[in-house]
TrEMBL record:
Phylogenetic lineage: Eukaryota, Viridiplantae, Chlorophyta, core chlorophytes, Chlorophyceae
Swiss-Prot/TrEMBL keywords: NAD, Oxidoreductase
Family (UniProt): Belongs to the D-isomer specific 2-hydroxyacid dehydrogenase family.
Name this protein carries in UniProt: D-isomer specific 2-hydroxyacid dehydrogenase NAD-binding domain-containing protein
GO molecular function: NAD binding; oxidoreductase activity
UniProt cross-references to InterPro entries, sorted A to Z: D-2-hydroxyacid_DH (IPR050857), D-isomer_DH_CS (IPR029753), D-isomer_DH_CS1 (IPR029752), D-isomer_DH_NAD-bd (IPR006140), NAD(P)-bd_dom_sf (IPR036291)
Stretch forming the signal peptide: none
Gene3D superfamilies assigned to the protein according to its UniProt record, in alphabetical order: NAD(P)-binding Rossmann-like Domain
Domain named D-isomer specific 2-hydroxyacid dehydrogenase NAD-binding: residues: 1-164
Amino acid sequence: MMILMLSRKVDEARAVFERRERIGEPVGQELHGKTLGIVGMGRVGKCLAAAAQGLGMKVMGVTSRSTRPELEQLLRSSHVVSLHCPLTPSTRGLIGPAELELMRKDAILINAARGSVVQREALWAAVQARRLGGVGLDTHWVEPAPRDDPLYSHPAVLALPHLGSISAEVYDRFAEVLAENIVRVREGRELLHRLC
C-alpha cells in the first residue's frame, strides 16, 4: 500500500484536490518494469515479492545469509527498497548514511521491519537533502512516534501507526487460533504456532 501511495504521490494529490487547483497533478510513477529490492525474504518478503511481480515489477531480495556486496547491489539497483528483516544485532542500523548514498536519488524506502533497522539521523539527512523519492514508515524508533519529530511532517514521508498486518480478518484468525489452542491445552495436544 505504501509503495503504491508513494509512487503515485497520493498524499500530494489529495492536497491538490482539496485546494481544487489542477487536474492531472502531481505526476507519479508507474511500478511496472521497476525493480523492488526486499531486505528480508521471509514469509512477508515472499508475499510482497509475489504481489510486486503481479504489478510487473522485477524483484531482488537479500536474506541474513546474503553478502554485503549483494545488499549493496540491491540498494543500487532498486527503485523501491522495502525492509522486512527482524531487528537483530546485525540488522540494527543496517541502513545508514553509506547505504542511503548507494540508493537511487528517486528511490522509495519502506520500513516495515523495525524502526532501528534504519539510522534515524541518516534518514532525516537524506530526506532533507531530497536524496529519496519517498519514505514509508510503518515502524518507528519510538512507538507511538513523537508528535514533534519533523521527520513525520515532511511531505516526502508517509508514516502509519504500525498497522502493516492489522485487519479485521487478522484479528478473526488470532481469535480462531486462540480458541483452538485452548481446546488443545485441555486435550493435552501440541499448540498451534508455539513460540517457546
